Inverse folding.
C-alpha cells in the first residue's frame, strides 16, 4: 500500500473509531469537568492529539481506553492550569472514572448510544418529582441549593430526592443489563 493509500486508510479508521467512541468520551469528560465549554474544548483537543498520535495507537487494543488516556492527561493539565476552579483532581480519581466508564462500555449492548438511550428511558420512567429534580441538577447543571430554591424545597429534601432518584436509576439500569452490581 502506498503512502497516500495508508493515509486515507488511517483517516477512515480514525473516523470510524471516533464515531464509535465520541459519546463515551464526552460522558467521561463531562464527569470530570463541570463546565460544558471546557468539555467541548477538551473533546476537540483530545481529537487533535489522538489524530496526531494515531501512529502510536496499537490496533490490537481497544481505542476507547487509549482515547480516554489522552483525555485524562488533558483534564489533569486543565486543572493544573486553572486551580481557581476549586476542584482537586489527581490521577487516582481519573483512573476510577476510567474504570467506571470502561465497566459500562464492557456491558452488553450494541453501542454507547444504546446505553445512553437506556439511561434516558430510565429517567423518563421516574416519577415526575424525581425526574424534575434530576433534570434541574444534572441536565441543567444547577447547584443543589438553586434546585431547592427553584422547586421551593429544602436543600435536604432535594438531596434526598436525588439520592432516591439515583437509586431508582441504578436499579432500572441493572434490570436493563446496562450496569452490573456497583463496585465501590
Amino acid at each position: 500500500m502506498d503512502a497516500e493509500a495508508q493515509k486515507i486508510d488511517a483517516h477512515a479508521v480514525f473516523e470510524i473509531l471516533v464515531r464509535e467512541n465520541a459519546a463515551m468520551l464526552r460522558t467521561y469528560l463531562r464527569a470530570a469537568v463541570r463546565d460544558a465549554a471546557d468539555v467541548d474544548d477538551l473533546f476537540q483537543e483530545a481529537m487533535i492529539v489522538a489524530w496526531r498520535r494515531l501512529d502510536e495507537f496499537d490496533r490490537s487494543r481497544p481505542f476507547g481506553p487509549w482515547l480516554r488516556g489522552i483525555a485524562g492527561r488533558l483534564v489533569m493539565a486543565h486543572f493544573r492550569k486553572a486551580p481557581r476552579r476549586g476542584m482537586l483532581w489527581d490521577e487516582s480519581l481519573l483512573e476510577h472514572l476510567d474504570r467506571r466508564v470502561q465497566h459500562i462500555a464492557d456491558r452488553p449492548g450494541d453501542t454507547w448510544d444504546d446505553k445512553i438511550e437506556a439511561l434516558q428511558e430510565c429517567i423518563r420512567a421516574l416519577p415526575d418529582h424525581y425526574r424534575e429534580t434530576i433534570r434541574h441538577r444534572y441536565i441543567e447543571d444547577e447547584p443543589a441549593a438553586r434546585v431547592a430554591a427553584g422547586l421551593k424545597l429544602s436543600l435536604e429534601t432535594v438531596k434526598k430526592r436525588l439520592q432516591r432518584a439515583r437509586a431508582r436509576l441504578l436499579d432500572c439500569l441493572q434490570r436493563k443489563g446496562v450496569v452490573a452490581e456497583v463496585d465501590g
